[in-house]
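FORM 7B: Structural annotation worksheet

SECTION A. Query
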Amino acid sequence: MNVSAENTDRHDYSHRAVWSIALPMIISAVSAPLLGLVDTAVMGHLDGPWFLAAVAAGAALFNVLYIGLNFLRMGTTGIAAQAYGARNNRAIPDSLAQPLILAALLAIMMLLFRGPLIELGVKLLGTSETTTPYLREYSYLRIWSAPASLANLVIIGWLLGMQNARGPLLITVITNGINVVLDLWLVVVLGMEVRGVAVATLCAEYIGLLIGVLLVLKELGKRTPHWVPADWLQLRTYRRLLAVNSHLLLRSAALMFTFAFITAQGARIGDTVLAANAVLLNFLYFYAYAQDGIAHAAEALTGKAIGDRDVSGLSLAVNRSLFWTGVFTIVFTAAYWLAGEHIIAMITDLTNVRRIAGEYLVWLWLLPVASGWCFLYDGVYVGMTRSREMMTVMVGSVVLVFLPTWYLLDRVLGIDGNHALWAALILFMACRSMAMHLWYRHMHVAIMRGLPI
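SECTION B. Predicted structure
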């Protein structure tokens, strides 16, 4: 890789370049937790906590499932961005077609085995007898959105790799906007309760897929791709995609386990605690999705720099993304500290849920500081296609930090079980942040010296 900065176009990696990708992705990403807020608020104003608990558990089940399959988005972005940076017109269409084929195969498997998959999730979540029927009702409807959901992951990842952040913005905002409207109509107007939330999501995902296909066709029309469909049927051509995605799958499985563990333990404590945690997790999702806008910019710019063999550009992309991560950390910490109670009150009017959520709000004040850096470095590592390192840090943080911390606090010291869960989550995020920072510095030094990494 060329370590000279003389030919680097610094405008390609300026603060403006970061925000040209980050701002659309932030707007796009913020719409996702806002949808979660609407789901929670609609359920939180029904007669009992079991409606909110069922949707919270069902959403957690599919969030965990799609977190596990998010390698379709991340792996596609890194590979597509490097093809874009290298100006490789054969690799560009391959970087779209191959993950779409993989997504279709995975969606078919999910639908074929939907019964065992959902029942396993219900069993692991351990919801109460009152909540479980509503959870099943939600899940058996929501599962039919899998083909659209997985295809959308690939399309969004590919558009981002093409340095097109407006496309993912359009897909996400339209999808979530339609979802919100259908939520309010089906639940509030037609009284469909849990079933209405599931149907709203199902319809919105397929409309989002249609928008995505149109955007892909428009993007391909800007260039002259070299299509080689025969490559898509040969396993050897999937070697790089499968290598990157296998590590990302294990990394995502570890993260999936963490959030499933938190949900399951909250369910075992009680429906009210489960509902309170669902309210508080909206704080995490809101910050994570907003911060992911910066991480997405880092993915696209880092991948472009790697594809173009531009070390100076790599440094600029990472350092400027780190700067804005610091700004976000300060803003969200202050917002959660000053307005946390008001946000809880906006989400639900259930007195017990509000009270219990307020008891654990202090952990949300610490969350941005602990987690902002690992969210950013996820983007950097994706752009560099360093999925093995991502997997190692994630699995190590779960096994060596999250589980031991929870066990020590909950089972050995006898601290309140929900406080133990939140403390373990904060330390888990902080460990990931530090480990990923140190490993990136090691890789960057190696690149500067022209050494293999």
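SECTION C. Observations
Residues 10-448 form one domain. Residues 42 and 188 are 7 Å apart (CA to CA).

SECTION D. Sign-off
Analyst initials: ____
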